Amino acid sequence: MRRLAADGAAVVFTYATNEAAAKQVVAEVETAGGWARAVRADLSEPAQVERLFAAVDQHFARLGIVGLDILVNNAGVPTGTPIAEVTEAEYDRVMAVNAKSVFFAIQHAIRRLRDGGRIVTLSTMSTAYATPGEAVYAASKAAVEQFTRVATQELGERGITVNTVSPGPTDTDLLRGAVPEEALQGVAQMTPLGRLGRPADIASVVAFLVGLDGGWLTGQNLRADGGLV
Ligand SMILES: NC(=O)c1ccc[n+]([C@@H]2O[C@H](COP(=O)([O-])OP(=O)(O)OC[C@H]3O[C@@H](n4cnc5c(N)ncnc54)[C@H](OP(=O)(O)O)[C@@H]3O)[C@@H](O)[C@H]2O)c1
After folding, report:
1. At 38, phi and psi to the nearest 5?
2. How far apart are the two ends of the chain, measured CA to CA in Å?
3. How many angstroms separate the alpha carbon of residue 97 from the centre of ligand 1?
4. I need a surface site. Which of 4, 55, 61, 106 has the fewest CB within 10 A?
């Protein structure tokens, strides 16, 4: 979101638990001359997704903005549990955070997006590169890819583009929580480019898709994975 704010967008972003990090991002954006607001929401609950969009409306109303230009669905949780050990609670949580939240966020965004708007969903290379322990995670992201493809068809007549970005291993809290430090170098070497992705690598692809140069791409799944898949 720092990148979109730097590119001139007024950005409302969500966090689930890390209020300190969210406040720091808002402060950094404002110091750089941009505009951002953070809203706490557990996106796995549709009622909270609805409240989030109401909060977005209020924030933008104070700026004199009606409607939305861009929705980026980024929140996600991993799972590394083998199929034999996945509980119903873990299955439901991963599906709710990763897939259900995206569906209802797209639904609320559709009612607000101006013609020519943009939607980007975050999937993963794991929908194309099967990895032990990632059955539920990959399935949740496969659902996101399908929401994206259908939304492309439903929204095209309004000039709204809808695309997926599928990162490979990217150096974030999520990856560091899922892969032991000693294994990270091996993961990096799996990519032809020989390194882990950086958050800025993914942000660049999203910024391209939502920017002026991305207008003729829709229904695509861009694999931002350093060539791994
Ligand atoms: N990093 C990778 O290697 C990688 C690879 C492929 C795909 N991806 C995808 O890229 C996206 C971003 O991942 P990341 O690596 O940046 O992960 P991250 O560092 O763990 O950040 C995940 C974000 O999701 C938020 N979140 C988690 N549960 C939530 C909930 N129930 N409601 C609202 N927000 C929630 C977190 O908020 P709090 O911090 O406030 O809890 C955090 O901002 C995800 O969709 C992920 O699946 C990542």
Report:
1. -110, 140
2. 26
3. 9
4. 61
**pTM exceeds 0.70 for this model:** yes
Q: Are 110 and 42 in contact (CB under 8 A)?
A: no
Q: Write the CA distances from 43 to 29, 116, 161, 186, 194, integer angstroms.
A: 23, 26, 23, 33, 34
CA distance 184 to 193: 14
| pLDDT string in tens for the chain (229-residue length) | 999 999 999 999 999 999 999 999 999 999 999 999 999 999 999 999 999 999 999 999 999 999 999 999 999 999 999 999 999 999 999 999 999 999 999 999 999 999 999 999 999 999 999 999 999 999 999 999 999 999 999 999 999 999 999 999 999 999 999 999 999 999 999 999 999 999 999 999 999 999 999 999 999 999 999 999 9
Catalytic (active site) residue 137: yes
Could you state, in order of their start, the residue ranges of all structural domains in the chain? 1-40, 42-224
Looking at residue 194, what DSSP letter applies? Answer: -
Of residues 77, 158, 183, 187, the one with CA closest to residue 122:
77
Centre of ligand 1 to C-alpha 141, Å, is: 12
CATH architecture for residues 42-224: 3-Layer(aba) Sandwich (3.40)
